[in-house]
Structures are given as C-alpha cells and as structure tokens.
C-alpha cells in the first residue's frame, strides 16, 4: 500500500509528453481517446511491469482519487439514510439537564438491549435546554429549540419526556405531553400516587385568562386546582441517577398516543422502577 501511495507522489520517468494540441483539438472524442491510449502504450514500451504499474497509477491518479472520493461520499449517504430510517426502539426528549455534555444515554441503551428492542432499530435521545416559560417569555429567548421540540412532538416523534419541573410545566402548557390517566389508565396511575406531579387543565376555557397571564413556571403552577396527573417523579431511581441530569427533581411524562408506542413507553417506566 505504501508503495502505491508513493506512486501518486512521484511522477514516473517517461519520454517527452508534448503533443500537437492543434491536431488533437480537431479529433472527435473517440479519436482522442484512441490517441491517448496509443500514446500511453508507446510511453510504456520498454518499461518493466513495476514501472508500467507506477506510470498507470500516476497517469490516472485523479481518476482513482475522484472515484474513491465518490465511493466514500455515496457510502456515507447510504449509511446515513439507513441509520435514520430504521424503526425507533425508544424515542426520548431530555429537557433541561444540568450539563448537557454530561448526560449519559447508557441506561437507555441498556433498556433497549434488555428488552430485545435493538435488532434493526435506532434509539433517539435528543437533549433540549432552556425549555421553560421563564426563558421563552424573556427578551433573551431563542425560540429555535422550543419550536423544534413542539414540531417533533406534534408529529408524534417522542415516546417520553425526561424533564425537570420547568420543562414539564412548559410541555404541559404547550400541549406536548398527555395526562397520565389518558395514557396509562386510572388503575396504573394509582400505583404511582405518591410520585405524581399534578397540573391544572391548561386547556380549560375557565382558566384561559390566568394561563395567558403566566410568564414564569411559578405563576403557571398557581393556576387552578392542580388535580391532573401529568408526570411521575423518577428522581431517586438508579436509572435516572446514572443519566447524570443534575440534582433537580426529574419526571417522566408521556408524549405518545398510539397504542404500540404507549406499550413501549410503559415498558421503559416499568424498567426504571425494576418492575419488569
């Protein structure tokens, strides 16, 4: 391989390379190719096999390089398309971790492996930060992250949200997550009664005026009677501790409505609590 690379660097010894450009310009494409082939044979006449190989490599080096680059480019596109079009094993939005660079997705991967969901699938774990009403209402707000989250959720992209209180309130306010009873049923929700995070129904017309006035999480949390279970506290579980999301309370919320995806999200919830 090193010998072949050296052939690209050093031009082989050869006879005079000049040609009659005027005469060549008058030839057809086929005639030009035939002429170049003949010239190539003439220049290699008397060379050893090693010298011929070196000359051919040098003569066609840009063709070799261009072909190799094209192969790598096309292969990259094919691999990217394959990775991004495989079925999703679990799709999770992680909101407001203390340090985005420190987040560990190993627990999610272990869940996928343990449940046999890893065959021909891909796992999604997207991280969003500054997802809260306080930030969105401030003059420093950059709506891009929140807009992407809203768009993805509207397309039923995520199964679950793993979030702090600010992210949960914002997601509920924007209608990105569903009440637990709608997703799990009243009986299942009762099992987590000591871990529930409740909100008011922000879509209730009777609360619309107060909801519209809220510019912070605390103001929104003061609206209504707070009797609608929307999240489950998972802060103290080993699963969440290993994700390294910070010291804040962390909640699991559901962003899916299709039966099969609810089943998968419920599987994750049970796995987090060791209820396999």
Shape: elongated
Q: Provide the succession of SSEs.
A: HHHHHEHEHHEHHHEHHEHEH
Number of contiguous helices: 15
Please report which band the strand proportion falls in: under 5%, 5-15%, 15-25%, 25-35%, 35-45% or over 45%.
Answer: 5-15%
Please tell me how large the radius of gyration is: 31 Å
Q: Low-confidence parts lasting 5 or more residues at pLDDT below 50?
A: 13-18
Structural class based on helices, strands and sheet pairing: alpha/beta
Strand order of the largest sheet: 2-1-3-6-5-4
**Terminal residue distance:** 53 Å
Largest sheet: 6 strands, mixed
What is the average of the pLDDT values? 81
Strand tally:
6
Portion of residues within helices:
40-55%
Overview of the structural elements:
By secondary structure, this protein is of the alpha/beta class. Helices cover 51% and strands 12% of the residues. The chain has 15 helices and six strands. The protein has helices at 2-9, 21-25, 29-44, 49-59, 61-85, 106-114, 133-136, 144-154, 165-173, 180-184, 186-191, 208-213, 217-221, 238-243, 259-272; strands spanning 88-95, 122-128, 160-163, 196-199, 228-233, 251-254. The protein has a six-stranded mixed β-sheet with strand order 2-1-3-6-5-4, with helices on both faces. Strand 1, helix 6 and strand 2 form a beta-alpha-beta unit. Helix 1 packs across helix 4 (49-59).
Summarize the structure.
With 276 residues, this protein is of the alpha/beta class.
């Amino acid at each position: 391989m090193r010998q072949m690379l050296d052939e690209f660097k050093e031009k082989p010894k050869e006879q005079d390379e000049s040609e009659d450009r005027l005469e060549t310009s008058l030839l057809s494409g086929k005639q030009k190719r035939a002429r170049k082939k003949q010239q190539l044979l003439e220049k290699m006449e008397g060379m050893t096999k090693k010298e011929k190989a070196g000359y051919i490599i040098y003569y066609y080096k840009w063709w070799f390089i261009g072909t190799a680059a094209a192969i790598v480019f096309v292969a990259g596109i094919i691999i990217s398309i394959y990775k991004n079009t495989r079925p999703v094993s679990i799709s999770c939005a992680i909101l407001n971790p203390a340090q985005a660079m420190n987040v560990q997705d190993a627990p999610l991967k272990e869940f996928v492996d343990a449940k046999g969901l890893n065959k021909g699938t891909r796992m999604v774990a997207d991280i969003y930060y500054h997802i809260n009403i306080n930030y969105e209402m401030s003059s420093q707000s950059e709506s891009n992250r929140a807009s992407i989250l809203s768009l993805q959720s509207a397309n039923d992209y995520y199964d679950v949200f793993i979030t702090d209180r600010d992210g949960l309130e914002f997601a509920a306010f924007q209608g990105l997550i569903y009440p637990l009873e709608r997703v799990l049923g009243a009986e299942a929700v009762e099992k987590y009664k000591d871990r529930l995070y409740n909100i008011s129904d922000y879509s209730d017309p009777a609360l619309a005026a107060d909801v519209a006035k809220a510019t912070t999480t605390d103001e929104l949390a003061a609206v209504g009677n707070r009797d609608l279970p929307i999240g489950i506290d998972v802060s103290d579980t080993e699963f969440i501790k290993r994700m390294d999301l910070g010291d804040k309370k962390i909640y699991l919320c559901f962003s899916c409505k299709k039966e099969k995806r609810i089943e998968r999200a419920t599987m994750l919830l049970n796995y987090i609590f060791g209820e396999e």
